[in-house]
TrEMBL record:
Organism domain of life: Eukaryota
Start and end residues of each Rho-GAP domain: 249-453
UniProt-recorded Gene Ontology molecular function terms: GTPase activator activity
Keyword Kinase listed: no
SMART domains: DEP
Keywords per UniProt: GTPase activation
PROSITE patterns: RHOGAP
Keyword ATP-binding found: no
Gene3D superfamilies: Rho GTPase activation protein, Winged helix-like DNA-binding domain superfamily/Winged helix DNA-binding domain
Alphabetical list of InterPro entries matching this protein: DEP_dom, Rho_GTPase_activation_prot, RhoGAP_dom, WH-like_DNA-bd_sf, WH_DNA-bd_sf
Protein name: DEP domain-containing protein 1B
One BP term from GO: positive regulation of Wnt signaling pathway
Length: 589
């Protein structure tokens, strides 16, 4: 055991050798800040995790970008705690004539964590000092840090000289148990199943056979395979069917953009309301803002007037209010208070993980835009409308040079993010970096609100085309499953060319043989046409033809020879003998 006043530090080992929490050696007080930085990557034998490697504080503050996926907020929370514990310098401090080992001042913690977050790719330099203080308050509430007397949870953290320390244990947030689901695509509904109380016989399915005339018209040049088929008349899709199509295809597209094996990792698809998606896509005005059927869910008139006032400043269309000094700040405070009292953020608690996952795509601008477009379609229409109006107002205020400053110390853009980020995105869980994540998302929303809050045209057109396709009459071939709107993906293996040719030949033998028999037995066509068709069939499918007509005799049965009768001699030809040609007077010169 080290003596009093000595600081514990792990000895430096090989980079591939794990560190044990008990491998401590005494070191000087001045080296305390490097004690946890110069550890190696991996996990110790006792289970403590050291994800950083040697290379100093800067190296430990530059982890890779955490991409979209399940539990992204939890991963970021744990990563920041580990990096903060590794990078925070610890040394001896005196407080009220008493010395405390391995502790730090509150202001030092703010400096360290602010630098760490600013250099982290997942947050960036936009993080403010006030946001850092809020995060440290969360750390104190969740026992990531404690004061020098061991108190935590109820103490309020301030940016001052109070002393704090790390507890012996590392309170990382546990990962939820992963649901037991396989890697499967979105299950699409089958609208062709008969409803309850109906039988398959009621579905109008008409069997058709191709006669020789139809065959000749379609195969006048080359004969193709004509398998047995049925004409399937689709039922009319109900509004509920169309809404389910929208939900299925929208979630499938979102899963593809996020690059996930299953959307259940980030969202409970049962909570997605298909009616909301359709209403958000079609019930919009000329500006693309959602219109509500239930006006009671809309913003109050006085809030809409206040938002229009600041968005269109100094031109206020329907307002005749006094313009005293500070009037615009009072209007802004009224708007902030209204949105601040909402019980649930506009992006809802249920979709928190979805939007946090989208933040992992911000470096891929086009993909992030599409992911946010689709994610915002899932919102309740009243939430989407409020979000559209609020973000549009925030963007206009940020770029309005005619509007007086709304704060003495904070720039207008930063003020917009600080004032409304929490009412747009936040988590139910206290152990989350929702303030930092919300600020990053809101900044991106303000810069790209016209694209993000519009209906994705490519998705809308593809769904509409699919709905039209489903309502068309379909031809169902033997062995093909055309009832499923989206057939499940099938897995196949490669076969040889000889086996393919054999399957192709044997698979079409029966329908081709039936077609040949129909041509042979059809008495309505002339002998000349029948011979022509048979000759063409023999040229295209010699194997099938050889089975039906193995010898020329079997083919000749179709065309029995008729007895040839000599025409009777004319009587006048016998009475008058043949006279040689003689010149007449008309030929004389």
């Amino acid at each position: 055991m080290p003596g009093a006043g000595q600081v514990f530090s792990p000895p430096i080992k090989n980079v591939d050798e794990p560190v044990t929490c008990c491998d401590w050696r005494p070191m000087g007080e001045g080296d305390a800040s490097r004690a946890l930085i110069q550890t190696v990557g991996g996990r110790s034998a006792c289970g403590c995790r050291f994800p950083w490697r040697r290379g100093g504080l800067a190296a430990s503050m530059e982890p890779g970008l955490v991409g979209p996926g399940p539990y992204r907020a939890t991963r970021l929370w744990n990563e920041i705690i580990e990096l903060f514990r590794a990078g925070m310098p610890l040394r001896k401090h005196r407080c009220r004539f008493k010395s405390y080992e391995r502790c730090f001042k509150a202001s030092e913690a703010v400096d360290c964590l602010h630098e760490l977050l600013g250099s982290n790719q997942n947050f960036g330099p936009e993080v403010t000092r006030s946001q850092t203080v809020k995060l440290l308050k969360k750390f104190l509430k969740n026992h990531v840090i404690e004061d020098i007397k061991g108190r935590w949870g109820k103490e309020d953290f301030q940016d001052d000289g109070h002393l704090y320390r790390f507890p012996p244990s590392s309170p990382l947030k546990p990962y939820p148990k992963k649901p037991s689901f396989g890697k499967e695509v979105i299950k699409f509904p089958d609208w062709n199943d008969p409803k309850a109380g109906t039988s398959e016989e009621r579905i109008p399915v008409k069997s058709i056979m191709m006669n020789s005339e139809m065959w000749y018209k379609r195969h006048s040049i080359a004969i193709g395979e004509v398998p047995a088929c049925k004409l399937v008349f689709r039922r009319e899709l109900t509004q509920e069917n169309i809404e389910e199509i929208w939900k299925s295809m929208t979630l499938s597209r979102l899963q593809k953009v996020l690059g996930l094996d299953c959307l259940d990792e980030v969202i409970d698809t049962k909570l997605v309301n298909s009616k909301h998606i359709v209403q958000n896509a079609y019930n919009v005005n000329k500006q693309g803002i959602v219109t509500l059927e239930d006006k009671s869910k809309d913003l109050p008139h006085w809030i809409l007037s206040a938002m229009k006032c600041l968005a269109n400043w100094p031109i206020c269309s329907d307002l005749k209010q006094p313009t005293y000094s500070g009037f615009e700040r009072d209007v802004f405070k009224t708007i902030v208070d209204y949105f601040g009292q909402m019980k649930e953020p506009l992006l809802t608690f249920n979709f928190f993980d979805v939007f946090v996952s989208v933040l992992g795509l911000l470096q891929k601008h086009s993909e992030a835009i599409e992911a946010l477009q689709i994610s915002c379609l899932l919102l309740p229409p009243e939430n989407r409308r409020k979000l559209q109006l609020l973000v549009r107002m925030m963007a206009r205020i940020s770029f309005n040079k005619d509007l007086p400053p709304l704060s003495e110390s904070v720039r207008t853009r930063v003020l917009m993010v600080q004032a409304f980020s929490r009412c747009i995105l936040c988590s139910k869980d206290e152990m989350d970096l929702d303030e930092l994540l919300a600020a990053k998302l809101v900044s991106f929303l303000m810069d790209n609100h016209q694209e993000i809050l519009s209906v994705p045209s490519s998705l809308k057109s593809s769904i509409e085309e699919h709905v039209v396709h489903v309502q068309r009459v379909q031809i169902k071939y033997a062995g093909a499953d055309t009832n499923a709107t989206f057939p499940a993906p099938s897995f196949c293996h490669q076969i040889s060319t000889d086996e393919f040719e054999y399957q192709r030949a044997t698979g079409s033998q029966e329908p081709l043989a039936a077609l040949l028999e129909e041509i042979a037995t059809n008495k309505e066509i002339s002998v000349k046409d029948k011979k022509k068709k048979l000759k063409q069939f023999q040229k295209s499918y010699p194997e099938v033809y050889r089975v039906r007509f193995p010898t020329p005799e079997t083919e000749a049965v179709l065309f029995p020879e008729k007895s040839k009768q000599k025409p009777p001699l004319l009587m006048w030809a016998l009475r008058k003998p043949f006279q040689p040609f003689q010149r007449t007077r008309s030929f004389r010169m």
